[in-house]
Predict the 3D structure of the following.
Amino acid sequence: MPAREVICGDGVAYLARRLPDDHAIFTSLPDHSEIPALGVAGWRAWFVDTVAAACRAVADDAVAVFYQTDVKHDGRWIDKGHLVLSGADAAGSHALFHKVVCRVPAGTTTFGRPAYAHLIAVSRERRLSPGASTADVLPALGTMSWSRAMGSAAAEAAIGFIAETGARVVVDPFCGQGTALAAANAAGLDAIGVELSRRRAAKARTATFADRP
Ligand SMILES: C[S@@+](CC[C@H](N)C(=O)[O-])C[C@H]1O[C@@H](n2cnc3c(N)ncnc32)[C@H](O)[C@@H]1O
């Protein structure tokens, strides 16, 4: 059985370490509404710095993968794909892919959260040959265990990619209820999660895809 460890604590502090070579990161950073004390401008800077810390935490040839959904705030579109790539640039990492995950069928107008999420993989030294390409547009995100969860189908796609890189351990420093950890274990990879909320950390310790609605 693949292992799972969930730490109830600060994911940013966790990212200050250099992870072993066989570790990859797969995560969704919190939205500005989850850290209201920062304000939107402060959160943007925090987000970019934290992406950079995640990029620096993995080994030179390892990958960090981010699943993020944009938000509209005060009549402005906050593009988290741009913020992820800004953080990656600051850490000297480059994109290996930038996929779009449809949250609703293409052509649907949404008035709240946008109709797609970003799935972005970055690395400092790894390169992907054209033959290693997979679909750039994922037609459905799968099921979500709660409103801020990763979609299960998107998580499975990301973990499939991470497994191909040779990683053995998946780290999610903002693991919420544990979607990334469940997907990693289901694929035979060990998983480490960090989560500030005691309640969500407890759920993350036992989450499986079978728990989904
Ligand atoms: C977008 S949600 C992640 C959802 C998760 N991917 C899932 O599928 O359940 C972000 C999570 O980060 C947590 N969080 C916020 N600040 C944190 C911090 N400094 N350290 C660790 N977790 C934090 C929030 O409590 C929230 O559960």
Notes: Residues 10-12, 28, 30, 34, 148-150, 174-177, 179-180, 194-197, 200 surround S-adenosylmethionine (CB under 6 Å). The longest strand covers residues 94-102. The chain has a mean pLDDT of 96.
